[in-house]
Amino acid sequence: MKLLRLGHYYSHHCFLPRRRLTSTVTSIPKICIVGSGPASFYTAQHLIKTVPRVEVDIYEQLPVPFGLVRFGVAPDHPEVKNVINTFTKTAKSPQLRFVGNVTLGRDLSLKELRNAYHAVVLAYGADKDRELGLKGEQLGNVVSARRFVGWYNGLPCDTDFPVNLDVEEAAVLGHGNVALDVARLLLTPIDKLKSTDITEHALEALSRSRVRHVKVIGRRGPLQVAFTIKELREMLNLPDCITVCNPFDFETVRSAVPNLERPRRRLTELLCKAADLSPSGNVDSNSRQFHLVFFRSPLSFQPSPDVPDTVGSMQLEVNQLDEQQHAVPTGSTETVQCGLVLRSIGYRSTQADPDVPFDIDRGHIPNISGVVQPGLYVAGWLATGPIGVILSTMTQAFGVGRAVEADVSSGRVDVSQARPGHTAIGKLLNDRGVTTVSWKDWERIDAVEQSRGKNVGKPREKIVDINEMLAVSVGTGGT
Amino acid sequence: MEGVERPQPEAKPLHLTSEPVCIFLWKESAGRNRLGIEPGLLQAPSTGLQACSVRAEVIVAMKLHVDDTVQSGRVEVTFIRANGERIKATGKEGDSLLDIVVNNSVDLEGYGACEGTLTCSTCHLIFKKEDFDRLPDKPTDEELDMLDLAYDLTDTSRLGCQITMTKELSGLEVQVPATVNDARS
């Protein structure tokens, strides 16, 4: 290696200005990413493609990769998870190292990462949810939709999530895709879920569920919904399930349709169609029903007369829209029966380490196109807030990759001095007794999950216990 | 680093369509190579033998008789990036435009994330009006649903995974929207 460099020097030195010499001995750019969801893998993919000789290390809190692709995407949407194939290709690059079971702020500090790497990209997502702060919110069965999703998708911390499905009436607060995901899971015939990678404990609980009516409640109207048309169409096409809307909610909507941009227009047309098909008069109460409820905000939750520490009903405020399309109360209220309330009003991020610049009000890291400052970047929901589909995250993450590449090639991030990267961090983790999971270790977990799934006709049976993941990762956890 | 070309993948296998008559070596440039053959052809996928490794920036080897496009069933598509760069690729009748991107290793970052299962819109392409009108299959509701999530949506947008190539469509030119791809422009 040394000989080669010398040869290079002697063959060029008489033609090149002396400072160019340093560029021929530039150290390897070392970049780490915290988190291993779509934002992380798409950033890594772009960096490996554009930054010559770069080494990218991904640190993930859990022993398993892929973030919300594994723990967020609904089990009955397996096609969406095909992105894992591309992520796996990236992970197998010799320029990428996966280090699982490492938590920023507990096992490592941001300062340590910034000292060890030329650049740090934070992409640990949004893993907390917003609360309403209403009377009765602490009652049993008033729960977070995010944790319900974690429960059926095998997020280790949500395995013992306390949810009781022995009720007929459920309400979901929020008009986003997570709200429709949980409503769909509650109303889908159980046979359709058996062949998915839904966790065994959720499948078992859902097979005994008595939930028949799900009200999905939003504070504004049909023109303001945040869910996307594909998820709505799925709800309307659910077998043995009736969609119920209030036709009065659509009075002013139809006249607005022609002036809408195409995506909003098609979504609104489909909502109007659902309203047209909605049964008028009494609906057979034995049928499964999906109610789309507009212009209602929760005010308080009341205990069930039978089980006093559990929710039994909810008081709603009736809203109308002002000129800025904000929901304002009309003054009238109504009460709906519900033995289960799923709160789905948005995710928020947390400040993983005191050195992470964090906007607590907005629940994200302030940034300009992913740049926090040269050398520190933020990708995905931690940067944008919890909005958009994988495409939006991919586009943002590629943008972060471009920003890092531009800072490295322009010298705003100085890569002329070598950084120890994983050599230093690996030693720190080892000294602190942290068991880490490599990509090879994850492949062992993956193989065991797939083989367990095969036995029960599922694509995989997810391991939900961290200790078991760790045991399987070193080949001692059975098959 | 300005002015330096994007680094190419280390090495990829080159598939030939039939027994090579004779192997020539030449340097591939951004546009046409020394033999005047479009680079897209060099990567033409087929059942043929694997000839050698290709280091795209440096040297490629290929047989002399490169006449695959006139072979029956071959189709040609040009992908145009927002920065005007034209990428010619070939496939066979029945291939989707996504197949052609994948089989030719056309460098469109993030293209086809869901692998053609109609659950994302990363294979969004924009057609000329006259081409859009002559596409044999009209978009389904499900395709339109995904397209509605795409950036730079136009009236002549389609998802590449839903367009099946026919002989009549050979020579098609399609625009790749800037926001998904063309990261460097």
Low-confidence sequence ranges of chain B: 1-70, 181-185
As for the CATH topology of the domain at 78-175 in chain B, it is Ubiquitin-like (UB roll)
CATH superfamily label of the domain at 78-175 in chain B: Beta-grasp domain
Unreliable residue runs of chain A: 1-24
Structural class, judged by helices and strands of chain B?
alpha+beta
Q: Mind telling me the C-alpha Rg of chain B?
A: 17 Å
Give the oligomeric state of the chains in this entry, treating copies of one chain as homo and distinct chains as hetero.
Answer: heterodimer
Function (chain B): Required for ecdysteroidogenesis in the prothoracic gland which is necessary for larval to pupal transition.
InterPro entries (chain B): 2Fe-2S_ferredoxin-like_sf, 2Fe-2S_ferredoxin-type, Adrenodoxin-like, Adrenodoxin_Fe-S_BS, Beta-grasp_dom_sf
GO molecular function (chain B): 2 iron, 2 sulfur cluster binding; electron transfer activity; metal ion binding
Family (chain B): Belongs to the adrenodoxin/putidaredoxin family.
Structure description:
The complex is a heterodimer of chains A (479) and B (185). Chain A is of the alpha/beta class and 479 residues long. Chain A folds into two domains: 3-127 and 349-437, NAD(P)-binding Rossmann-like Domain (Rossmann fold, 3-Layer(aba) Sandwich), CATH 3.40.50; 130-346, 3-Layer(bba) Sandwich (FAD/NAD(P)-binding domain). Helix content of chain A is 35%, strand content 18%. Chain A has helices at 2-12, 20-24, 38-50, 67-71, 83-91, 110-116, 145-153, 177-187, 190-193, 200-207, 229-236, 253-256, 262-277, 381-384, 390-410, 422-431, 439-455, 466-473; strands at 30-34, 55-59, 96-99, 119-122, 128-129, 142-144, 169-173, 213-217, 241-245, 288-293, 296-303, 311-321, 327-337, 340-343, 347-348, 371-373, 376-378. In chain A, β1, α3 and β2 (55-59) form a beta-alpha-beta unit. Chain A starts with a helix and ends in a 6-residue tail after the last helix. Chain B is of the alpha+beta class. Chain B has a domain at 78-175: Ubiquitin-like (UB roll). Chain B contains four helices and nine strands. The longest helix of chain B is centred in the middle third of the chain and has 7 residues, at 97-103. Chain B starts with 11 loop residues before the first strand and ends in a 10-residue tail after the last strand. The relative contact order of chain B is 0.17. Residues 1-70 and 181-185 of chain B have low confidence and may be disordered. The chains are: A alpha/beta (479), B alpha+beta (185). Chains A and B meet through α3, α5, α11, α13 and α15 of A and α4 of B.
